[in-house]
Specification:
5 strands; 295 residues
Length: 295
């Protein structure tokens, strides 16, 4: 597979794919998101036979929304035509999961298709794909989200970019499925305030425990939540601005402890020493910055 920028006019929908009912409002919302943030997840296409063009494998909604957004070309993952067998489906899915080429929602759809094709359990699917059963369950959970939100969840690797929706965000957002207006508002809050998944989870928890204050919780800043709930910061330190910063600092000793020197040699010493000195200098600069800001 390869990633290519392809003109929209050269892409067609899959005629063999059962046509989904596309809600105009959610499609327009996705188009607005694409105008603001670009197309975050490439669609997957396969070459057409005999002509210069491509057929959509996954991502038809994104393709249509990109047209509404006024784009002329979009990023696409180009896959080879596949045989319609369970073995081939699982082989492609394993490759996609390893390469992170497929958007989380598309992974979830593919896993669900594989489950139905094989009449398999989550555990059996996880063993076939070589991933944990928990990962399979988490991905399938995304199918319970409104599609307009699920489409916004991106692959972000071990260090999520601020303001993007991750699979973990999705698990918390799913708890508000019965309150779609609040759910959509929280998505905007996550993007606007660049909330981590854990912080989004705290907002959801506060909403569930204090439904009468839901609008105020979503309308105010994250650090204002204690005052909205009528509690002191001492009673709710996790809602302080510095809470996330302190958690990040807590990770530093663990990261250093994980560095193993068994395979290092004397030839590596200058490089190791230089990187550790640079790290110490970064810590000194951050300490000076904190003292200047809070002192």
């Amino acid at each position: 597979m390869e990633l290519k920028i392809i003109a929209l006019e050269k892409i067609v929908e899959d005629p063999d794919q059962p046509r989904k009912v596309l809600d105009d409002a959610t499609l327009a919302g996705l188009a607005d998101s694409i105008r603001q943030h670009g197309l975050l997840n490439p669609i997957t296409v396969t070459p057409l036979e005999g002509v210069e063009g491509y057929r959509i494998v996954t991502g038809e909604r994104r393709w249509r929304a990109a047209q509404l957004a006024g784009l002329f070309e979009i990023p696409c993952v180009v896959a080879e035509p596949a045989e319609d067998t369970a073995a081939r489906v699982s082989e492609q899915l394993v490759e996609n999961l390893q390469r992170e080429d497929l958007a989380p929602l598309d992974k979830a759809r593919a896993i669900q298709t594989l489950k139905e094709t094989l009449a398999a359990t989550n555990r059996e699917v996880s063993q076939r794909l070589g991933v944990s059963e928990r990962t399979v369950g988490y991905l399938l959970d995304l199918l319970g989200l409104p599609e307009s939100i699920g489409e916004q969840i991106v692959n972000v690797g071990p260090r999520p970019a601020e303001g993007q929706l991750t699979e973990k965000h999705g698990r918390f957002l799913k708890q508000l499925n019965d309150q779609p207006d609040l759910q959509a508002h929280l998505v905007e809050k996550i993007r606007g305030e660049k909330l981590s998944a854990d912080d989004a989870g705290k907002v959801v928890k506060a909403i569930r425990e204090h439904p009468d204050k839901a609008e105020a919780l979503l309308g105010g800043k994250f650090e204002e939540i204690p005052s909205i709930l009528g509690i002191s910061r001492e009673e709710a330190p996790s809602f302080s601005v510095g809470g996330a910063f302190l958690k990040q600092l807590d990770r530093i000793p663990g990261i250093l402890d994980e560095i193993k020197l068994e395979k290092a040699s004397m030839a590596d010493l200058p490089s190791i020493e230089g990187k550790l000195i640079a790290a110490r200098e970064s810590l000194d600069r951050k300490l000076a910055e904190v003292r200047a800001a809070l002192g």
